Amino acid sequence: xxxxxxxxxxxxxxxxxxxxxxxxxxxxxxxxxxxxxxxxxxxxxxxxxxxxxxxxxxxxxxxxxxxxxxxxxxxxxxxxxxxxxxxxxxxxxxxxxxxxxxxxxxxxxxxxxxxxxxxxxxxxxxxxxxxxxxxxxxxxxxxxxxxxxxxxxxxxxxxxxxxxxxxxxxxxxxxxxxxxxxxxxxxxxxxxxxxxxxxxxxxxxxxxxxxxxxxxxxxxxxxxxxxxxxxxxxxxxxxxxxxxxxxxxxxxxxxxxxxxxxxxxxxxxxxxxxxxxxxxxxxxxxxxxxxxxxxxxxxxxxxxxxxxxxxxxxxxxxxxxxxxxxxxxxxxxxxxxxxxxxxxxxxxxxxxxxxxxxxxxxxxxxxxxxxxxxxxxxxxxxxxxxxxxxxxxxxxxxxxxxxxxxxxxxxxxxxxxxxxxxxxxxxxxxxxxxxxxxxxxxxxxxxxxxxxxxxxxxxxxxxxxxxxxxxxxxxxxxxxxxxxxxxxxxxxxxxxxxxxxxxxxxxxxxxxxxxxxxxxxxxxxxxxxxxxxxxxxxxxxxxxxxxxxxxxxxxxxxxxxxxxxxxxxxxxxxxxxxxxxxxxxxxxxxxxxxxxxxxxxxxxxxxxxxxxxxxxxxxxxxxxxxxxxxxxxxxxxxxxxxxxxxxxxxxxxxxxxxxxxxxxxxxxxxxxxxxxxxxxxxxxxxxxxxxxxxxxxxxxxxxxxxxxxxxxxxxxxxxxxxxxxxxxxxxxxxxxxxxxxxxxxxxxxxxxxxxxxxxxxxxxxxxxxxxxxxxxxxxxxxxxxxxxxxxxxxxxxxxxxxxxxxxxxxxxxxxxxxxxxxxxxxxxxxxxxxxxxxxxxxxxxxxxxxxxxxxxxxxxxxxxxxxxxxxxxxxxxxxxxxxxxxxxxxxxxxxxxxxxxxxxxxxxxxxxxxxxxxxxxxxxxxxxxxxxxxxxxxxxxxxxxxxxxxxxxxxxxxxxxxxxxxxxxxxxxxxxxxxxxxxxxxxxxxxxxxxxxxxxxxxxxxxxxxxxxxxxxxxxxxxxxx
Length: 1026
Prior knowledge:
Blueprint: E1 15-27, E2 30-43, E3 46-51, E4 56-62, E5 66-70, E6 77-82, E7 91-94, H1 98-112, H2 123-140, H3 154-173, H4 177-193, H5 200-206, H6 209-217, H7 224-227, H8 230-233, H9 248-255, E8 261-262, E9 269-270, H10 272-283, E10 286-293, E11 296-303, H11 313-327, H12 333-351, H13 359-373, H14 377-380, H15 383-403, H16 411-423, H17 425-435, H18 449-467, H19 478-484, H20 492-502, E12 519-520, H21 521-524, E13 544-545, H22 565-572, E14 580-582, E15 585-587, H23 601-628, E16 634-639, E17 642-643, H24 650-668, E18 672-680, H25 684-693, H26 697-714, E19 721-724, H27 728-743, E20 747-757, E21 762-764, H28 766-771, E22 784-793, H29 799-808, E23 813-814, H30 816-825, E24 833-834, E25 836-837, E26 845-846, E27 849-854, H31 856-861, H32 863-866, E28 886-890, H33 894-908, E29 916-919, E30 922-923, H34 940-947, H35 949-958, E31 966-967, H36 970-1000, H37 1015-1022
Parallel strand pairs: 16-18, 16-28, 17-18, 18-19, 23-29, 28-29, 30-31
Antiparallel strand pairs: 1-2, 1-7, 2-3, 3-4, 5-6, 6-7, 8-9, 10-11, 12-13, 14-15, 20-21, 20-22, 22-24, 25-27, 26-27
């Protein structure tokens, strides 16, 4: 059987339907049974059961002899028995859909009685039968708990459909495309004026959730899209000092069709790129960057250039570079670098296609979806259909989460997706953060046709692999599937095996009715929306039409009514980027109305040639740098040290493992890595816990420090040193750095009176205490009112210097959200730090006053230097590693590491660490905090014992975007353990071993390998100023 040709029922079959049949095969030490898809085909009185993946007949029965009975009242498994073969073992047939079984039993009875085939039900009943099959199957056999469900409802989708219908009607009232364009411009202008207005433009903006969230957060200072209506942008010439006004037709051609022209007044070129550049110039007249030059504060101001006469971005960038060179002598190297990064980030962000959301063009693209759905509106508004669509949507989002590849929805899924995004963006964002690995899933409606075909093939196969059911009756193209897998290292036969098993389309009598089917117009009209033919349409009213239904791929443009006025408008406007199907397959793509910039093919070829030359030059630079790169570059990484008053939890394991992976990564590139972790063993909490347990504080610390050291070993960590803050090495250094601050005039004695958070071991100001209702925000424990003598660290002295460091070093604290949060807090006056305590004795005694012990954070933070012989910096054997390359910490302790610690280092005369990275929390699967009282705490040792340490490490690193919170789900861990490690990696290893045994006598052949080197670091070294 040739590949790429899905098996359907034979031409003489009267009825064909698919069921799962239990099969057994001898494996390992016994029989392994599983259910496989089989086609049940009735031809006259004969029932044939076929394995369509190989085209093999498995069983043949006389229909009159066959009975099908349910094995148990609530079971989805049936026994198929033959009266003529009473001794034969009955076949076990599985079907969660009762309707499918009932229809098959009726067909069996008709075949047994030699009755003619039952006439097909009316079209609407057949279409609704597809939805009933989905809903029944879902109710009988729900998907696993790992398939998350949202709060999107039938009523919400019906409201969204009503808005779509209003836009469908609006098109009917417009005589030409220009008139429709004016309506869309007015909608966009009204939305720019009032972003809260309830309109189609607002809805379409919400269909791009990432950009919508960014614009919502910046409501006080809108982006260009929300600041200037598009009709004002394209109304006049974008060149400076030119007042020429464009006619609406010209504006449409420039804006939508992508035409280029020469202004009749200033005689300069005008196109979409020029308008974009003009918008950037208007929004960013200058950049400001404070820095320190020769110990004096300096403010760098870069005034951006005006529009170049040729309107080209390249000419504009040449002038920006020239101005940067002229500005360079006025600032420090760090300040110029920070300013460069700021300018580059602004340019890349503004001109990135993903950030250039044109709401008028986006509305036009969405109208294409409207024009596919609304002719069949009564069908789509049916609750049964929408419930089935919601079920499929949740499965689709599960695939997006677990596979992380581009997937193509069907019309039903896309309709629910649009509703989920637009009805309540906050709920959609919350759903994504909790169930989509912490990432908001964006909706890309601008994917090219070829890419869509590849992605659709991937979606079709993945759906079958994960849910063991067909995705649609529209078969994927094998050529597209091969193209999508071209980069795979798997042998081709594995692709063919996957294709044969999972490219199956359902048989005729359990198909997605209406997919790839045309129906007589008179059969559709009783339930479809009446559409009057447009006299100007190029196509006459056809005899047969197609409509969008459950399972219709979104790129199927055949479901547009070619004779409708709506379709005529799109053609009249020159929007030829539609989806059409013919005998040759798919042409173009309806998901992207954007027209390419006005560049000839010769110009594109020249640009590609220039890019190739540039790439070759860059490759030569990289190879030269590779040869010159020092192999002994230092890299010092630390974790936060773990507090010794309780057992390790998932957060400790997450930080340890991710830090270890970073350390191993840099060792791979030949860097001289030093990796430090340890335990924090001083403070009031430890003293209180030890007293409650009837042991000494040092005994308690010995116990838990030993547990944390064992965890590091059991996690296969490669740390070079494990620091304990009760060690003499650490205590000596803590007293040393405190003495350095005192010698610098930054320590003074005073009295502290205020609120104290025992858990955090920190004082809280009155304003902060009021904000948290005088309770610990995490535990709810009341704050303590305290007054005591204290030595204070003059932290306020370093506020301005710290702020300047943040601006001069934009990557000092990552992710960026935490950096902005710290800078926001630093807008308020920085208070001096109470740096000693007298209410307990378990701590580092102050060298100048033994009655006081050092504040636990002043003590603990110094471990990053005490662990590498910091007392002898810069001449110590290990102190060469300072400053640290990165401190990896939890996001809840950024203030201590990114404000207190830098101020201590400035006072003591040490360089600041290069970077601090704050990772997110490991939460319960629903996104809530793990809590012993709730009972949702996961012990890392349980996971190690159940799945093995390597699988556990892999899941921790893979489970969430680094820096975001990680919702921990054992179901997801189980699936990834089986699919990606046991299956994918295990299969690769098994095949490699098999081939080495077969062809290399059991030895892995020697293969020359290119030495590893960090391409990103070397490439960065070659970048110009801009």
